[in-house]
Amino acid sequence: MQLHKLGLTVATAATGALLATSAWGAEPIKIGFIDPLSGPFSVVGENGLREWQYAADEFVNSKGGLLGGRMIEVVGFDNKISPKESLIQLKNVIGQGINFIAQGNSSGVANALTDAVRKHNSRNPDKRVMFMNYSAVDPALTNKKCNFWHFRFDANADMKMNALTDVIAAKKSIDKIYIIGQDYSFGKAVAAAAVKYLGEKRPDIKIVGNELHPIGKVKDFAPYITKIKAAGAQAVITGNWGADMVNLAKAAGSAGLNVQFYTYYAAGTGVTAAIGPSGKGRVRLVSEGHSNPTVTKVWDDYVGAYKAKYPKKDLSQPRIVYALRMFAAAVEAAGSADPFKVATALEGLEHRTLAGDKVVMRKDDHQALMPIQISVHTDQGIKWDFDNSGFGLYTESSVSLEKAAIGHSCKMKRPKS
After folding, report:
1. What is the pLDDT of residue 25?
2. SS3 for 126?
3. If you average pLDDT over residues 154-180, what whole number do you get?
């Protein structure tokens, strides 16, 4: 099923405002965005909210809305990166009559939300909620904890590590690796996947360190860098993100740590600037989507329009664009904004991204399948940099959708209606 009623041309803000005004009075379809909007990870949450709102305006609201004139309104709810606070905000979302939520930062939060949504929906069939997970990649969410109301639009940690370790395995010069990550479900999943896949592909590689640190609590990573140096590692694997990735990068640069870094989130939101020239050609990232080189004109135009509107910000999460567009396509296909009907329409939905990649929402576990890219931190061949630093990500290799797709253990229980 392709997105057919929503055009790809980036509209001007004036046109969007005019069309939105013409549909005045129609009840908007609201998405409650539950992510950190304050505290050490606020910049990540704020960027995510901005990208959701921009995509909604460009692909739906500027085109006259959905279902004959209903705009999409993305409303931010600050969870302070806390699972407990997220459940409070979920109650606020439900209390405001919002039927769709989006969240991505912290798998710990996602695990709490998916359990709460499942329980709420079973008890309140007339007030059900659908959960769009755009970045929380703990594999359990689409395996043993899968549920009908949860959809993940990013590759999970195992899928990403499978791709990343293919690259590491090919580097015959690497025989000692240090794993470092945040001490919660995602950090643990990254470490477990690294051990598993390295053991299968390069059993000769010695893991000389495997440790977790408190999330959002470490300001100075110098002691960790000292341990990495002392262990004789030639490479580091980390799933750190946000402030923890910024501070890790700063400490590595200050100490002159000359090793390869294999990462999940070492780009944007201050990270690229923190890495700077010291990480050129040494820091790699696994992700969906493309930054450089330009792959299609429509994606290039979209990034350009976003940067023109927000010159000091980066469009760093392409999955938000296709998550919003797939959601919109499901609403149109369902002919309704009822969460059950939209969820049913999302199952098995196929979509072509602005960059030309095919994305499929696998029905069996609600895990999106897509090509995965391995990119390097560099200032060569960069049109779209991050942090206005002159440095960005350049795609070195890609893994096809078919190869990136791995199995699952989900046993989906679907409601009848």
Report:
1. 64
2. coil
3. 97
Local confidence band at 101 (pLDDT 50, 70, 90 cut-offs):
very high
Give the angle 106-133-247 at the CA atoms, nearest 5°: 30
Q: Give long-range contacts, CB 8 A cutoff, 24+ apart: 343-347.
A: 343/130, 343/148, 343/149, 343/151, 346/151
pLDDT for 163-175, tens place per residue?
A: 999 999 999 999 9
Domains of the chain: 13-154+294-369 (3.40.50.2300), 158-287+371-404 (3.40.50.2300)
- Phi-psi category of 216—alpha, beta or left, where left has phi over 0 and alpha has psi -120 to 50? left
Long-range interactions of 397-403: CB distance < 8 A, separation 24+:
397/167, 397/373, 398/371, 398/372, 398/373, 398/374, 399/163, 399/166, 399/371, 399/372, 399/373, 399/374, 400/371, 401/357, 401/358, 401/359, 401/360, 401/369, 401/370, 401/371
Six token digits for residue 35: 């992510």
Query: Which letter does DSSP use for residue 81 in this model?
Result: T
> How many of the other CB atoms lie within 10 Å of CB of 51?
25
Give the pLDDT mean for 366-383: 97
Torsion, Cα of 316, 317, 320, 322 (10° steps)? 100
Other C-beta atoms lying within 10 Å of the C-beta of residue 136: 26
Enumerate long-range contacts of 411-417, CB under 8 Å, 24 or more apart.
411/146, 412/146, 412/147, 412/148, 412/364, 412/365, 412/366, 413/147, 413/148, 414/148, 415/121, 415/125, 415/148, 415/340, 417/340
- 283 and 268 in contact (C-beta within 8 Å)? no
Distance CA(154)–CA(149), nearest Å, equals 16
